[in-house]
Amino acid sequence: MSIQPKRSGMFRTLLFIVMGLIPATAGAAEAPWPERVYNPQKADDDLVLPMPCGGAMVFRRIELPADGLLGDRRIQLGRTDDALGYAENTRPDYIGGGFTDPEKKGTRAYYLGKYEVTQAQWAAFDTPCKAVTDEGRLPVVNITWAESVGFAEKYSAWAAVNAAKQLPTEDGALAFLRLPTEAEWEYAVRGGAAVPDSVFIETTFPMTEAPARYVWYQGTDSANNELNVVGLLKPNPLDLYDMLGNVGEFVLDPFRLNKLSRLHGQAGGQTVKGGDYRTPLADIRSAARQEFVPIDKKGERRSPTTGVRLALVAASLPSPQRLTAIREAWNALPASAVAPQDDPVKEAEALAQSVDDPALKQRIAALSAVIKVSIQTRNEQRDRAAVNALRVGAYVADKLAADQRVLKALQAILEITAKDTAEYKDRADRLTTAEAAFEQNLDYYLDVTLGVETDYPKAVVASQAEVLKRDLEAKKITSLEKRIDTFVKHVEQLRAGSAIDRSKVLADIN
Question: Strand, coil or helix: what is 270?
């Protein structure tokens, strides 16, 4: 069913009654809200947390691969765009959920609101309770960042007393609510572990239909410059609704400028993510981040396009037992986990020059030699790993080329097969299976491309590509040389900030 943008309060009321989003009469304010009010798109694995006044809020579990108490995942945030590089340039970050599951080893998780906080949910702490109306399904706006933080704290305290059994726990400690960090928010909007790495870095999460089916943006084909109720459109791959568009969302982190591959040291106002109903479609993107200055000449600043979505998280140190375990895990970390000096050899040489004791000078010189050997060993290991990654990319490219020929043959055979026959159905099923496997192989190729671009500098990729070519020539495997060049081309295109175009990748491979 296509939902058109609202035109007036009366139109919205009639629309919601027809759709069954609210009853024709509101009923008692303290009565439990109908599920369709707080969770219009129900899923079996939703986490529903009650609120005062019979209300509720729904959360989705966001899982990420990470092992051990100090396990986290390196992710790439932002995007490459010189025009907005000062704010959104790509940068690495790390994310780790606080919840563990004994039955899912190697996985950590946090929870994120399935929908933006609505006006009804914001008002659930008011006394006396208010009736749920059609306006209550709209996201709350015109709030400050501090009020958002206060709302999360107030909800946490209420839930700990009134809904402890529904709250997740970690090592016996109750979960609590706060604003999501920017990394938590962006990891979730991009699709997290539910999408391949090559898709994760795209401008938006995958949309199999027109963007207007997923995002409220500026335009008569979408929001028509007006706020819209939550949950009417399609979700992202993690079943989160309205992450892009409708209202911008406060996150926990202050706004910082970008300094190439990292954030700048100065913290400014608050960070708002996601774009809103006044954002043109061309500007809708996962990397979008804006600074929200909390004051203006009139005093406290509020915005009709800015709201909030809550995260449900665990404490980093939920118990004394966990503190002991964390200390043990930290002490077990390899020494290489501590960031070295920019040039440890020069550092050792400088130390040798700063001491007068000949014996100590000799010891430092010996240490410098050990460091040089260690760096050389590390570089050799890196180069061997780069060669293996390039070899994998070339082989997968070769397989994709062969698979495309198989697909064309299967399609040709299907076209000359009589329809409405068992043979036609069998061949159609084979083609469908082959197409699904082909798409998985293409995702894997793009993931390997992203991994090489992330892990190895351009000079290493270029030099080790030549090493691999000479190795294959010695083995008389010359057919892969063009595949190596194609793979390196895709790696460097990605490094230069070019978007991944699957059709162009396949055309290059062919």
Answer: strand
Q: Distance between CA atoms of 39 and 32, rounded to whole angstroms? A: 13
Who's near 129: CB < 8 A, 6+ residues apart?
A: 29, 30, 52, 53, 54
Listed residue (140, 139, 143) closest to 302, CA to CA: 143
pLDDT at 415: 93
Burial class (CB in 10 A: 0-12, 13-18, 19+), 2: exposed
Tokens 């930290």 -> residue: 330
3-state secondary structure of 448: helix
What DSSP line would sit under 78-106, residue for residue?
A: S---GGGHHHH--EEEEE--SEE-TTSTT
Nearest alpha-carbon partner for 427 in 439, 418, 438: 418
Please name the helix (run of DSSP H) or strand (run of DSSP E) that holds residue 107, with its range, or none.
strand 107-113
Peptide bond into 128 cis (omega under 30): yes
Q: How high is the pLDDT of residue 1?
A: 34
Angle between helical axes of 422-455 and 481-495 (0-180°, round to 10) = 60
Report how far residue 499's alpha carbon sits from residue 286's, in angstroms, rounded to the nearest whole number.
14
- H/E stretch holding 113: strand 107-113
**Strand pairing report for 169-170 and 173-174:** antiparallel
**Residue 242, both tokens:** 């309205």
Tokens read off for 278:
């006044």
| Cα–Cα distance measured from residue 126 to residue 142, given in angstroms and rounded to the nearest whole number | 17
Matching residue, tokens 């303290």:
30
Report the pLDDT value the prediction gives residue 342, as an integer from 0 to 100: 61
CA-CA distance, 262 to 90, in Å (whole number)?
Answer: 8
Dig out the tokens for 268 from the structure: 């400014």
Q: What number of CA atoms fall less than 13 Å from residue 211's CA on the CB side?
A: 22
SS3 60: strand
Mean pLDDT (10-residue bins), the chain, 510 residues: 40 40 43 93 97 97 89 89 90 93 88 98 94 92 98 98 97 97 97 91 94 97 96 97 98 95 94 97 96 95 97 97 93 59 68 76 78 79 90 94 94 92 93 94 93 92 88 81 93 86 91
**Residue for token pair 């219009």:** 40
